[in-house]
Amino acid sequence: MPRRLQHFVTRHEVRTGSFLSHLKSGLGGALGIGAVGALAVTTHQPFLLAPFGASAVLLFGHPASPLAQPANVIGGYFVATLVTLLVLMLFPGAWVAAAVGVGLVIALMSMLRITHPPAGAIPILAATSTIQGGTLFGVVLGGSIGLVGVASLHHWLPPRHEYPKRPPAKDIAAP
Known about the structure:
Elements: H1 6-9, H2 19-43, H3 50-61, H4 70-90, H5 94-112, H6 122-127, H7 133-154
Helix pairs in contact: 2-3, 2-7, 3-7, 4-5, 4-7
């Protein structure tokens, strides 16, 4: 392969974990999405959203990532949903609403330090689907809370991962 193209195929992800921990990550993703899917079947609401698959990769495959922490997951989806509902009221064209929504979601999540990349898909999802405002809000928030709950329980099982991450002792204010 030509040297100038080598950086396109070089893996930059650090080798971590054991075979068992990788299997556990996959099982966690299946359990998390399974729980959201069961909620969808039980409630007859569209809880099974594509962005939740990407969230599962972060929550179960990279639980130490800042992007996978509960504040980021739930907060990112909350901001994305609010922005999406506002943008859809202001812009009748689906592609305009999606574009403006994604841009605003990125900016606000960054400003608030609650970036969760899968939440950036919510404006596109809403602009291209028939999910209405109240339903969108309920399924996005309910699904994100459910995934974080499953991840919290899942990471107690061996091989254990600290989830959510705790701040270092020096960062915790004394009473």
